[in-house]
Amino acid sequence: MQDLIKLDLVDLAVAVGLMAIAIGLSAWERLGLELNIAIATGRTILQLAVLGYVLDFIFALDNPWAVLVFLAVMLTITAIVARNRISQKIPLVLPLVWGAMCLSTLLTLVYANFLIIQPERWYEPRYIIPLAGIILGNGMNAAAIAGERLVNSINTFPIEIETHLSLGATPQQATNQYRKEAIRAALLPTINQMMLLGLVAIPGITTGQLLAGVKPLEAVSYEIVIVFIFAFANLFITILITKGLCRQFFNSAAQLVR
Questions:
Q1: What are the pLDDT digits (tens) for 202-244?
Q2: Contacting residues for 236 by C-beta, under 8 A, at least 6 apart
Q3: What sign results for the dihedral spanned by CA atoms 87, 91, 94, 100?
Q4: Which residues contact 59 (CB under 8 A, 6 or more apart)?
Q5: Calpha distance 136→80 (Å, rounded)
């Protein structure tokens, strides 16, 4: 494996030049995105710099409790972001999203760690933290899409749902169509990505490993595992969240609560 070419502050400053050019292009075209691009650039630098120092500390500490605390913080942040996109008015959405993402991430990591990768220690930071980050990042988007789609559908078609209820349908039966549509909408980007993987562009994870000097076949092997991991996790998360959200719209008498 070849040594990774290290980037110094000068190299990073040159990279920032790309964003300066982007700001200039936005101003030239009068797009009004200059401030947004500048803020996004600053946040990217700050957030990734903080992440780098934190991960460097955790990797050096090499302690399972430190790893678990870091994963809990990641989980909580992603759950809050997903909740904000779904709805802040529905009670118990945050614990629902948190629990669904926690269970899905836990099951997926256990499967990947003990059956596929099999590191010497279950809490090996170099494996468990990046895998959890990928699962949570993709799961957050899937949960937000599915939850937002389901909430909008129920709020848009209450009369149809109440009609089904009046004809003897259970709340689960009355909302089953909207649940399926929400899950499909959330999984469609993942499925499309899997269909085009390796054909249109080299995936980001494979690119990173290639830049680090990993052999192409080894990089592709890890990409396959990672794609299957977040595809399963996304499906599991959306199933749990849509089931939980549907229950929030009905009272103990199986009546739709608006």
A1: 777 788 788 777 888 888 898 899 999 999 999 999 999 999 9
A2: 103, 104, 107, 108
A3: negative
A4: 125, 126
A5: 12
Angle at 216 between CA 112 and CA 219, to 5 degrees: 20
Whether the pLDDT of residue 16 is over 80: the answer is: yes
Question: What integer pLDDT is reported at residue 78 of this predicted model?
Answer: 94
Structure-token pair, residue 242: 């849509």
Own/partner long-range contacts of 55-63 (Cβ < 8 Å, ≥24 apart): 55/125, 55/129, 58/125, 58/129, 59/125, 59/126, 62/125
The identity of residue 105, as a single letter, is T
Six-digit token pair at 241? 């969240």
Q: What residues pair up with 250 in beta bridges, in sequence order?
A: 256
Percent of the chain with pLDDT over 70: 98
Q: Is 197 helix (H, G, I), strand (E, B) or coil?
A: strand
HEC string for 45-103: HHHHHHHHHHHHHHHHHCCHHHHHHHHHHHHHHHHHHHHHHHCCCCCCHHHHHHHHHHH
Q: What is the pLDDT of residue 3?
A: 67
In the numeric block, which tokens belong to residue 24?
A: 């200039």
Every domain of the chain and the residues it spans:
1-61, 63-248
> pLDDT: is 98 or 196 the higher one?
98
Bridge partners of 256, per DSSP, are 250
The reported pTM is 0.85
Q: What is the DSSP code (8-state) at residue 6?
A: P
Tell me the two tokens of residue 66: 């430190």
Measure the CA–CA gap between 149 and 227, rounded to whole angstroms: 24
